[in-house]
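User: My collaborator sent over this chain with a note saying "see what the structure looks like." That's all I know about it. Can you take a look?
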Amino acid sequence: MNKRLLALICFLILGSSLMAQTGYQWKTATSGGYTYKYVTNDPTKARFYTLKNGLTVILSQNNKAPNIEYRMTVRAGSNEDPADHTGLAHYLEHLLFKGTDKFGTTNYAKEKPYLDKIQALYETYNKTTDAVKRKEIYAQIDKLSGEASNISIANEYDKMMKVLGGQSTNAHTSVEETVYNEDLPSNAIDPFLALQAERFRKPILRIFHTELEAVYEEKNRGLDNDDSKMYEAMSSRLFPTHNYGQQTTIGTIAHLKNPSLVAIQKYYDTYYVPNNMAVIMSGDFNPDELIKKIDKAFAYMKSKPVVLYKPAPEKPLTAIQTVDINGPTAEKLQIFYRGYAENSNQSLLLDLIGSILSNGKAGLIDINLNTAQKVLSAGAGYEQMKDYGIFYLSAQPKQGQTLEQAKALLMEQISLLKNGDFDESLIKATVANSKLGLLQAFDENSYRVDALMSEFVLNRGSKWNQSLNGPDAMAKITKKQVVDFANQFFKDNYVVGYKHKAEDKNVLKVEKPLITPINPNVDATSAFTQGIIDAKLKAVSPKFLDYKKDLTFGKVGIADVISVKNTDNSIFRLSYKFDMGAYNYKLLPYAAQYLPFLSTDKYTAEEISKAFYNIACTYSMNVGNEVVTINISGLQENFDKAVSLTEHIFANCKANESALKELKSSILKARQNNKTNKKAILGGLVSYARYGAVNPTNTVLSNDEINNMNTQELLYILHNINNYKHTITYYGPKSATDFTTEMSKLHPLPSAFTPAANPVKFNYAATTANQVYFADYDMVQSEINWVRNDGLYNAADAGNVELFNSYFGGGMGSIVFQTLRESKALAYSTYAYYSSPDQKEKENAIVAYIGSQADKMNEAVAGMNELLTTLPQIDKAFYASKSNALNTIETNRIIKDDIIKSYFADQKLGFDHDSRIDTYNSLKTLTYADVKAFHANHIAGKTYNYCIVASENKVKMDDMQKFGPVTKLSLEQIFGY
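Assistant: Without extra context I'll predict from the sequence alone. Here is the result:
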């Protein structure tokens, strides 16, 4: 939930006073009895309303699917936290899921005295320093919280959203915003608005101490994250007085341990007022009807004066400052420069400079460092906040390279920029690529609401016209302006952060308090919640695919063609999908990695990158274990150029021995870095558990084989790739006939395809007894995966699987989440699900996960095992889960080239039709007895592999042996090198 405010897309938010007012101008209109503002030529067609109480409402209509994305945005975040209660805004965000005096409780009048006593005790606890007395007070809090929980209801909000068909209940707090997210079907808008209006009417700060423990876990996860530690340390130097650097969103350990419900309530009363909030929605609705409903729902809100955080200006940085961070992950370098306020000309210039340096294809860093393989990886960009921005440079050193050497290479690119050693055409190309990015992004409701949300946070939406005009404003910037500004901006005025792979001897953690699990009261339902559950929603009929009608099938030579016409815009996406992958040829992934560094008989690698960027197109070769795809995309007007250039590259790429030497070194360094990544290590343990000592993770080329790779082998693969069987797919504005005619000229094919080598096969390991696979890692937390194989895919189980996952372990409203996090406070993140494979020849798996403090591992494992053994029966939760599963299918619309993806996915599972038809029909008849039987047959009483990543200094071997015999795996056993 906790995240920094990142730029949604470089050119959307910044805007400029340089803009011409011809394309995007504010206008006022009245419709349906409400006056609103809008911007001409706005691709989102957003309407900006201000209600009588000051509440901002932004509506963007998009009727392609019966869904709506919603954001309730509060223009306040951790910047507004009191200095003696950091983390407060984030606490509050968590508590806004706990209900009001009308829901979340069986009887608020009886509950309130307990809550008042708990609040008073926290105030006493906050002021008490004696350790013994603090322990006594917390024991009282714990006791009263348990008694109060007999009256409260822990998960009513999630229950209601599940019934209404919600798909992504969440929230986040950042430095300048607190945002509540929902994705709902459009037929649920009336009860949804009733729920949201009630949610913010009178929130009650209940079930606090278990939620506090979830925040402790979130803090501990941050303490295990080297990137977070470096960002925090560097920000504190970059902003020595501003809260961007002096307060973190999640707060200090000292403040986390001493919360104040009084201070939290005061924060709510101060900042959660309509003139500081915005309801933002995009999707399937009539805006004239919807604005009336929103106005009515939130009319109770009363406007209040709001004074947001307004710091004194930071003094200019006049010297280089250095930050050193130790931790278990790979070495890394970052450089931060302090930027400017939003919507300033300087920020626009910095955003452009970010793309001149690093755009993924043709920037100075892309060409001079990444393509030249002078570092393992490098990049640059600009993060915009309200008062200032952060311009950043980053690099990972290659084998044998120091962090200082990597830094020197980054600074060389800054020198080139300041000297004007770049092509002015980069500016024009950046504008073209940004416009393409916006064209693609604005097709999605989630992107629209997030862009409009950031616009509201940064400037109350008043400069949406400038934001839309950002690319055009950028096009007016000259090379001279960039160079002049770079010379003024880039001086010895930065913070440099060195991330060293070394033990962090200063790691702290939030200690586990003694907490008695609360009573979640899962069988209870408030009258308000019952009203939402009983709401009669207008039926939405599912729309299934008919592949024979929705797809056009054809031929180009001997290759099959599948296409879908794009009737919305001028974007095309073309793929060559090959029926082979790394399982067929171990060298395939390395050939794909070699490709970007190769020249042809006509063009250098640098010229190729620049050519694609200049025509706002892209190509890539992606190698999976079983499938290879070559993807080409961009504007249809440049289709011929993009495809011809791609074909030329594969046919004519030539050897580059020095590049291959550097690539080998980079691969070996990346492998070394992979061994420092706890997520990769846990994934390797799971692979070991599923397949045994020979598995997909460790069946790779050895380091010696990497060193012995030769150019001829790799070039043979690239030159001959089109000789292997593949299907051509196309999504774009051309008709199928015109497309196949054109492709026949552009894509030469053999008279017969070359058969691919037989793929390597992996045998699934039988789990006949409990087994622990352990990897030692220097971390505060422990992370545990349960996994077992469960036989071949069975299409008849699809409905049961869908419903079981929704009920048992998927999402915030599931049994697992509500029990292990909400009731027992054992983790910040936990889930469990039955995993169906992507092919009918593969096996199912049961997967569960919990990440908790190391000293809570035993409790966490016991809690999950209890649920794996006995499935709780909660009828209302089951009803909500079934309703949600059906609603998901009813309101899901598979469109555009997703139709092609769905077709391939169903083919692999043995379906000749839309598999959702079978799942939907099965779901309609399922009862709790069916899900219980599924749990009994597939989950309960089974043996499991426990995959555990933790520090052996923080977990006990004796404890793990209680789960099963322990096999401690080395990194070489896990990764195969």
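A starting point for your reply to your collaborator: The mean pLDDT is 93.
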